[in-house]
Amino acid sequence: GSLESAPRSRCLGVGVGRGVRRGALLSLRGGEGEDQLPTSLLSEAALAKRVKLPLEAIEFIKERMFAMDPKKKEWEPLRLQNAIIRSAERSDAGTPPSHLAGDVPFDQDPGAWRGWAEGQLNEFAQREDTGIGRTNSDDGDVMPRRFCLLEELAEAEHGFGDGTVSYGLQDKFDRRMLLWDASIVGPLGSALEDRFVNLIVQTGPQYPLEPPRIWFISRVALSTVSQETGEVQRASVPYLRNWTDQGTIRGALEAMRASMSNDPLRTPQPPEDETFPPPPPP
Question: Distances in Å between the alpha carbon of 278 and those of 170, 219, 236, 254?
């Protein structure tokens, strides 16, 4: 089959780079040489052989391109094929995946994709039948936990909303994607109006079947927050109390921000530099 017939899947968005520029890749390789791109469309099998990756990894690459630039969906098949080749073929097999935190644009280091993609495929194979993931409402398929978190990471790195809620992966090398740094700007008309507060979000192994745990780092006086540990009491926040696998980190933080307006406006607040104790390790 051709690339036109390759199925698209969901929850594959990732927060890395902006597509591959031919000049950047050639500068890494030192010129065209035997890496010259095909002038005709390859079959899927031939493409997989060319880039030395399984077909699933090729689909990963295509999906990440679409996630970063939806206009690529309109590209001619040959142009898309060669962009995939440029993304997949290695330049440095040992490069760590620093793209995950956005430190290195993907198009400046395309070869680091290879080992990372293969690791993702291995993890997908291990988790495929566990049922841990987000159920698609259209066909009932379950997208694995890590893929869904990669999609949430992509949204976080691109930015969303008005900036009053933000989050990002705490450790860019954590393959488990357990801990996230987050911030909330207090809503107007609340005791925390325009106050910048820091939080930590933990997406455990059962996420998104189970809601995340959330701790405030900045000390605040809120009825939804334990005054001893800073942990959000999930039963007191409807979004967390009524959690489904369609819930997200963003949704949880936005719900937490909205709940700040439920406390009395004149509730005394600790000084802005006071903090809760660090949360326990996952």
Answer: 14, 11, 22, 22
Task: Please tell me whether residue 201 adopts helix, strand or coil conformation.
Answer: strand
Q: How far apart are CA 83 and CA 120, in angstroms?
A: 21
Model pLDDT for residues 214-252, shown as the tens digit of each residue: 999 999 999 999 999 999 999 999 999 999 999 999 999
Mean pLDDT of 27-41: 55
Instruction: Tell if the pTM clears 0.90, that is, is over it.
Output: no
What per-residue string of b and e applies to 83-115 under the rule 16 or more CB within 10 Å gives b? bbbbbbbbbeeebebebbbbebbbbbbbbbbbb
Q: Any alpha helices (H) in the chain, and if so which ranges?
A: 22-29, 44-51, 55-68, 77-88, 113-127, 145-158, 238-241, 249-259
Q: Which residue has the tokens 């890494």?
A: 28
d(CA 241, CA 21): 46
The alpha carbon of residue 14 and the mean position of all alpha carbons in its chain are separated, in whole angstroms, by: 5
Q: How far apart are CA 176 and CA 169, in angstroms?
A: 11
Summarize pLDDT for 118-140 with one digit per residue, the tens: 555 555 445 444 557 788 766 67
Copy the structure tokens of residue 209.
């079947």
Which amino acid would we find at residue 240? L
User: Around Cβ 19, how many Cβ atoms within 10 Å?
Assistant: 16
Q: Please, which residues bridge with residue 237 across strands?
A: none
Cα–Cα distances (Å) from 233 to 77, 87, 198, 244, 248, in that order, read 51, 44, 17, 17, 17
Task: Look up residue 208 and give its DSSP letter.
Answer: T
Amino acid sitting at position 83 = A
User: Where do the H-state alpha helices sit in 139-280?
Assistant: 145-158, 238-241, 249-259
The label of the residue with tokens 């440095």 reads 92
162 touches 257 (CB < 8 A): no
